[in-house]
């Protein structure tokens, strides 16, 4: 009997990353009729996992999550890598391709520690290290104080319990994947915009690896891919890095995509928003929206953009 095909799937080892890798494996096996043991999970330690005490933006940004997996992928030690697309830089090595985007989960953020944004007591300390969450919060509630908080989902929930902050934000998708789908208050994504590519799991492979590309094609969800690529095109057009407070939400309107985007000054005092309705194949539309937002931004705000990373 010929040996069964198999795939080495690289993942980070945080509980969220592992939950996402298990979901990817389950979908691959279901789509290809494989047994579970045909997908080998390979746990790769990312540089970002070793540093928990400083904001991501200060220590090298999103590359901290991808660099190690990229290396293993390019060296052929794994065949594919699972990522939260929110954490993947817009500029990717040429040798690496996005092979699949899984059906996207709930894009909303969840507020922990208060029943609503308006119910956070005046002067409270809200824990977040995400520039988008900090700026968007201060825009709505300039009376609040933002304090840095990092670590995986469980660590952040524990820090909240320990009183390091009075409230914090987490992605609904991450909470649900960890079986914590009922905690906190879900914030309507139309009013509190998520991060570009939030709630999307992506699988990357070597661009020239046709066999793996075909395997991944079997679990690619086209509508989710279209949304994620549009939001990533916006981010690229903005020169978005982890230093830049950028929020985006895509809705489907019939055959078209409706993209709402906002950029902020880091202190939240300035918010510039715009929207665009376009055909999914029209990758220039999100870039054009990015240019419109930048053109509207005062120079000191625009200065925070344009550094890809
Ligand atoms: N920055 C960390 C990160 N990357 C992806 C998720 C959640 C899952 C997702 O958005 O796909 C989280 C945690 C969070 O923001 O609460």
Question: Could you explain how this protein is built, in words?
Answer:
Pathway: Porphyrin-containing compound metabolism; protoporphyrin-IX biosynthesis; coproporphyrinogen-III from 5-aminolevulinate: step 2/4. One of its GO terms (cellular component) is cytoplasm. It catalyses: 4 porphobilinogen + H2O = hydroxymethylbilane + 4 NH4(+). It contains ten helices and 13 strands. It has three domains: 7-102 and 200-220, D-Maltodextrin-Binding Protein, domain 2; 109-186, D-Maltodextrin-Binding Protein, domain 2; 235-302, Double Stranded RNA Binding Domain (2-Layer Sandwich), CATH 3.30.160. The protein starts with 6 loop residues before the first strand and ends in a 7-residue tail after the last helix. The chain is 32% helix and 22% strand. The longest helix has 18 residues, at 15-32. A hairpin with a 2-residue loop joins strand 11 and strand 12 (256-264). The chain is α/β, with parallel strands linked by helices and 309 residues long. The radius of gyration is 19 Å and the shape is globular. The structure holds the ligand NCc1[nH]cc(CCC(=O)O)c1CC(=O)O.
């Amino acid at each position: 009997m010929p040996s069964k095909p198999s795939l080495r799937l690289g993942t980070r080892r945080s509980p969220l990353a592992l939950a996402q890798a298990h979901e990817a494996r389950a979908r691959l096996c279901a789509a290809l009729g494989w047994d579970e043991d045909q997908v080998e999970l390979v746990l790769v330690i990312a540089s970002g996992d070793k540093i928990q005490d400083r904001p991501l933006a200060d220590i090298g940004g999103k590359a901290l999550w991808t660099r190690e997996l990229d290396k293993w992928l390019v060296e052929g030690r794994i065949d594919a890598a699972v990522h939260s697309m929110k954490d993947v830089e817009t500029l990717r090595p040429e040798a690496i391709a996005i092979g699949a985007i899984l059906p996207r989960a709930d894009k909303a953020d969840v507020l922990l520690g208060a029943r609503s944004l308006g119910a956070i007591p005046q002067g409270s300390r809200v824990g977040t290290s995400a520039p988008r969450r900090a700026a968007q919060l201060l825009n709505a509630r300039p009376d609040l104080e933002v304090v840095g908080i990092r670590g995986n989902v469980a660590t952040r929930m524990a820090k909240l319990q320990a009183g390091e902050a009075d409230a914090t934000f987490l992605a609904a998708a991450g909470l649900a994947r960890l079986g914590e789908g009922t905690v906190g208050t879900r914030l309507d994504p139309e009013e509190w915009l998520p991060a570009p590519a939030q709630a999307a799991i992506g699988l990357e492979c070597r661009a020239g690896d046709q066999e793996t590309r075909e395997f991944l094609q079997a679990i690619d969800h086209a509508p989710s891919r279209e949304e994620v690529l549009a939001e990533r095109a916006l981010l690229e057009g903005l020169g978005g890095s982890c230093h830049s407070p950028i929020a985006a939400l895509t809705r489907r309107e019939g055959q078209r995509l409706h993209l709402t985007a906002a950029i902020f000054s880091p202190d939240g005092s300035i918010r510039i928003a715009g929207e665009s309705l376009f055909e999914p194949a029209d990758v220039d539309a999100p870039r054009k929206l990015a240019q419109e937002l930048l053109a509207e931004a005062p120079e000191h705000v625009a200065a925070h953009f344009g550094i890809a990373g």
